[in-house]
Specification:
Layout lengths: L3 H16 L3 H5 L2 E2 L2 E2 L31 H4 L7 E5 L5 H10 L4 E6 L2 H13 L5 E5 L12 E7 L8 H11 E14 L5 H4 L2 H5 L6 E2 H10 L3 E10 L4 H4 L5 H9 L4 E9 L13
Parallel strand pairs: 3-4, 3-6, 4-5, 6-7, 7-8
Antiparallel strand pairs: 1-2, 7-10, 9-10
Helix pairs in contact: 1-5
Length: 279
């Protein structure tokens, strides 16, 4: 299995490449019998086009849900988007929080930050800011955000506990998050689990569903709710890059092991000393 650093480098390299493409190029990347790697990044995406604030230039088709639609953002809120990419969720959040609010996007891929800033500048969005950084060590002050959103990003991070600890740190007491992510309901075949490419494609880095929800609780959050859940089906032409035909058949027999979930949870109002005091 690759090390955490190797996984992070694989993610950075792949998403730097994707940042230079548009959504249509990513979605139409199937090359004959063997599918190009970019297709795996788009099979989970939901349709944002009907949401207020949608900007097609910022939509690279990389999400696995619509967390901003469920995030209960109010006018004047400070919203942080983790793994903000080209700015799609950040711009949807801006439409919700209005001119009196602020949106901060965080991404560790330089090319994505450059594209997001270009998109914001082109639209004159003065209250949307994009910061380059690791979401395990967010470049944000304590208790500064009302709402945190993230779309298909935490599954790319080896240290998910560290991310939830950071989310707890930067949320104001009483603040909340809405996060769409990929989770598993059973074990992946070893060849899939060990593939860095499938990790960067949001699959092999996914946690078991129950473990993911337990981690949220152990991080100090309360009132956890599943806002949306759907099965994710990986096409056979992608699976065949990693598994032989018998292994693909066995994988299919297990039923749907991969799901997208959108999870809502709150930081308790009275919690000012970190996660441990709220458990």
């Amino acid at each position: 299995m690759p090390t955490d650093l190797e996984l992070k480098n694989a993610v950075r390299e792949k998403y730097s490449e994707i940042a230079l493409q548009d959504k249509d190029a990513n979605a139409a990347s199937c090359c004959g019998a063997t599918c190009c790697s970019s297709e795996v990044y788009n099979i989970m995406a939901d349709d944002y086009s009907q949401l207020e604030g949608y900007n097609p230039d910022a939509d690279l088709g990389l999400g696995c849900g619509l967390p901003t639609e469920f995030a209960r953002i109010e006018k004047g809120d400070v919203v942080i988007d983790l793994g903000s990419g080209a700015g799609n969720d950040a711009f949807i959040a801006r439409a919700e929080t209005g001119d009196s609010g602020k949106v901060i996007g965080i991404d560790f891929t330089e090319a994505m930050i450059a594209k997001a800033r270009q998109n914001a500048e082109a639209r004159g969005f003065n209250n949307v800011e994009f910061r380059q950084g690791d979401i395990e060590q967010m470049p944000v002050s304590d208790a500064s955000a009302d709402v945190i959103v993230s779309n298909c990003v935490l599954n790319l991070v080896p240290n998910k506990a560290g991310v939830f600890s950071e989310i707890f740190r930067v949320l104001k007491p009483g603040g909340h998050f809405s996060i769409s992510d990929v989770v598993l309901t059973g074990p992946l075949p070893d060849d899939l689990r060990q593939a860095a490419e499938m990790y960067a494609g949001c699959v092999s880095g996914a946690s078991q569903r129950n473990e993911y929800l337990d981690l949220i609780a152990r991080s100090g959050f309360c009132n956890t709710t599943i806002q949306k859940e759907k099965d994710i089906v990986i096409p056979d032409d992608i699976l065949s890059r990693y598994l032989d035909p018998s292994a693909v058949a066995a994988f299919r027999e297990q039923g749907s092991l991969i799901r997208s979930i959108t999870v809502y949870a709150e930081k308790p109002e009275a919690c000012n000393c970190g996660p441990d005091c709220c458990n």
